[in-house]
Amino acid sequence: MTTTVQLCEQDGGGASPPGVGPLVRLWGLDPSDLPPTVTPHKELAPFLTAVFQEAVPFIEDVPAASSSGGSSWRPDGIEKFPSSKACVNLFKRVVPAKDLKLLVKSRADIKGVKASRVRAETWNLRRSVHENAEIPGAAGWDEWYRCFKENHAQAEKDFSPTVLSFRRMKSWKCKDLKIVQGDHTWTNITMRWEESVHKLPFPLKNRVFPVLQITASDQNHVDGAEFVVVQIALRDEDAPGRNDAVLGAYTSVERLRRIANGVEWIMGTVCDAGGVVPRVVQRLALAGQIARDVDMFLSWIAEERKKPVARDEADSEHAQEEAQGEAQGGAHIEASSRHDTEETREETQTREQIQEKEQKEQTREQNQEQTQEQTAQPSGQASQQQNQQE
């Protein structure tokens, strides 16, 4: 049964500066504050509602072109790549440190963050509009949806050479939720704890970025052809040990939707790679990195189309989850299947051993019978046979 939630103003325990919320931030969330994976979807609604309320308006005033026009995002250049027919418009937005410090001081629900250590957040964003077609230099809507709504982390690993691996730590069941937010009605909601390991140039160590990833489709858009992907950094102190990497922080808001002249792709992010890399150096490099993602994805998807691989239910999100054993039932089925296979293998080996033993026993008995017959023959006959043989 689907549960509909009407979005309303959140009571966060204090006033927030305009346009600044506590959740979709670089300081992220502590994994210990995440609800258990068995939490009923109704109880996840307040948290998800707060995330949508914060993330969606944050990118909704992105200019349609390279002019600001009263937007909080200022133009930061245009990039063109060989694998993309569309140009990539770049933008920047700085969330002042004073606003973030005020937020920390005024809200009791922000845990583990000291106002004295809070710095300004510099967000980099790109916007591009691509032809809605499965041709070189572009991609069809089904490809966008499959790669970024259903299999975001896997797709990034496949098309980006710097992503070494990803791991899904936890997954929550919230597909039956429907959250109404103004003109949007968010459905097909997913929430996952994932971590990805990125390669940095030598001699820097690899970086691991744990995130809480939330995706949702907008039912109110024409044919439901709009979805968002929100990724919030997780302060997981165990991640570096699991991956032999330095802990980084990554938060992003991404939206893909079909519009009159194609598919619009917007992605804004704030990132801290941690370690010894100065933040000013990271900020200078980040804009170019997110722009190149467009080129790498379109180059990769063009090659994927050439592969004779059937795109059936195994590519769907549900099949992916079952294959990875996310659900306990799926894990149980997988374990049972593996156990049955092992039993079958053992039974086969046992039958073969028995057959081999029986064959040896039969041969031994035949040899004994022949020996007994030869022994029972008269000595003369035995001598005659021996002479004939000689």
Automatic annotation (TrEMBL):
Stretches for region Disordered: 308-390
Start and end residues of each DUF3074 domain: 123-301
Protein name: DUF3074 domain-containing protein
PANTHER family tied to this protein: DUF3074 DOMAIN-CONTAINING PROTEIN, EXPRESSED PROTEIN
Domain of life: Eukaryota
Regions of compositional bias (Low complexity) in chain numbering: 325-334, 368-390
Compositionally biased region (Basic and acidic residues): 308-321, 335-367
